[in-house]
């Protein structure tokens, strides 16, 4: 019933108090027969259905649901009249564990009345104040097997209705539920810190508050996405890191968006104030001409922090303005580090994710990332999520931003516990952080902290939030800061004097001012990714190692990874494929694509390499070609034969059948790749166009990460591409989009046409010291195109060739040169063979970016007498490579040569939907390619 009523009746309130299910039944009865519910109810329901569809405001809904105690008590008393009297306290205890958070003191601004939870009232169970001194059994309530009702109620209110409001009864695992309730009830969810700890917390709050105030004063008008209103995040993170370090954590990877990022950098990560001030003043020099840089509130940072358990390395990920996209990237980084450390218990490396409330509830990548959290190929032992809940988006109120009670409700889908905490109580925030670390390390599962606070300024400091939220911002203007509240609390408890507090503030202000005024302020540290384990790698230059493997090694490896235990019952079709691969590596038959790919991995692993490939159905392969995971046909058990090639502590082969997600999984693999340069990390699309769903990862990280942040990645995007008459959806991997993103030699785009080329390309990606993303247009129908298969000798020597020259047509006899890439080569080759044409040469461009100008120029120079050079592609004119390559090709032609384009007509969709029309378009394309004139070609 999502309607508002101008004059809610007594019955309306009573029914809300008793529960919505009865109201729904009554309304259904009214719809069937209005006369059956009585006049008063009929009038009420008539007014509801006649109401405008816009529905009530959040405030109206809360006011409407305010119960009338007398009627509620009457209904509840009769409902529980048959419950045995001593058992009623057990029901009450359970109700507080389920609903106590609804009555918790969570909102610093007290903007809305607390939600109704009639189950928390004594009258709901037929009890009253007259029963308060009666002794009741308590079940598993911590504190005693039986207690006075008065004491039970006091403990429940302290534990579940204070400044921490826990939600955990949605968890189906009894052990996890019991752990949380015991942990909270044992201390009544109240921190019990000593004086030194409380002074330390005050210092953290003061630093956070004064840092923001200083920036607001000295750098007025500049964007900083301040933490003001949520300063308790700083002592919370401090408590989390210290607790984690004391329990064996050695690395913490943080992901966060903009809000509070500079404060975290300064007061948690230890980034120097001088560097931060210089960034505000814009006086730093570019590290080098190469690259664009990024705004200060996108930048990451790494540092080491001392804890009682040892040094903890902190790493804050670089993050674009797409907010939650950092979540899977940070998870991937954690997984790579855990693998490198051999951290099978997943305690040494931890993920801490900081979210905004509107983004956590609204962005789909959050749900995708949560779903990854327990999957074998992606689990990292749980993340600690902290939602900085400003109770507002940019200008949007919660009731317009989500359909759930809390912004954190989405985490319930993985049964994660949620600790809502009042941001005006730094002690409670620190306690929530410590509980979160304990829970994560005990159960290796995600846990969420909902830091309920507010945003003192607008979305940015130049915004005017009172225009759209006048009531909220009047309340904020009159509300004391977190530091003021905590200071008065400590003074009242005799922990600190007002004079001492003022002295701490003045000392920090003086420190910041001295740094700002310093004349010889050191220059900011240059962003440099070539440190640590990246030290021997390159971001610029050329590195073309030989990637051949000896015939003896190939023969040995093919048997090692294709001969399975005698008791393993392989599927007959797969067994046939495995036997054929052994013959291929013995030179008895040409090598196909599946064998070439497998042998590339096998050889890399045998050489001590690390390979990880993930995607939907990557184990078998979408096109029944890979079979990296095989299944016993009798028992169903699985096996990864390539693991038999492992050789050394960092020799890994990991293949993952991912969930049906592109954005989160690609983000995860990118994060993995930037944390481990020694790994060949491959994300495979089931079909190339599936990558469209992850475009933000491609745009903001893969294509631009080096330019913005100097972060290197060798990730491979494996994108099946090719036109086979199967319609628009799975024909094109959108080659043109990747070429459009190419600049500053930021990545590689390749479309190999032989298995040997694929073999060398994959090996080169790991063996080379150059680390650039590789966009790989992968074969589909070519997988079984016998004309494409390679001889064994093509694998035993040499390297990847960016251009493949014509091998059959004599240059002096040629009248035309066709240049193409990928699958269309075999369409052209087949047409030429069928027509027995011997005066048209075909050149294949295997690497489209960086464009192999010198190699292609050298080949074209052999065709001095040829005037017509034609770029041929199967994609439409406005797609594919033509628009991007015609200019660089034109620049390397001989004076007498002219470039033409031969494509399908421009189109809005990638391909036609009818196979017959596809064949007709292909026929026209091939006919024009070999025709005497240039009719129908582009100039």
TrEMBL record:
Keywords tagged on the record: Oxidoreductase, Thiamine pyrophosphate
GO molecular function, one term: thiamine pyrophosphate binding
Cofactor: thiamine diphosphate
Transketolase-like pyrimidine-binding domain segment(s): 591-785
Keyword Oxidoreductase: yes
GO cellular component terms given for this protein: cytosol; oxoglutarate dehydrogenase complex
One Pfam family per UniProt: 2-oxogl_dehyd_N
Keyword field contains Chaperone: no
Gene3D superfamilies from the UniProt entry: 3.40.50.12470, 3.40.50.970, Multifunctional 2-oxoglutarate metabolism enzyme, C-terminal domain, TPP helical domain
Enzyme Commission designation: 1.2.4.2
Transmembrane regions: none
Domain of life: Bacteria
One BP term from GO: tricarboxylic acid cycle
Protein function: E1 component of the 2-oxoglutarate dehydrogenase (OGDH) complex which catalyzes the decarboxylation of 2-oxoglutarate, the first step in the conversion of 2-oxoglutarate to succinyl-CoA and CO(2).
Family: Belongs to the alpha-ketoglutarate dehydrogenase family.
Protein name: 2-oxoglutarate dehydrogenase E1 component
Higher taxonomy: Bacteria, Pseudomonadati, Pseudomonadota, Candidatius Mariprofundia, Mariprofundales
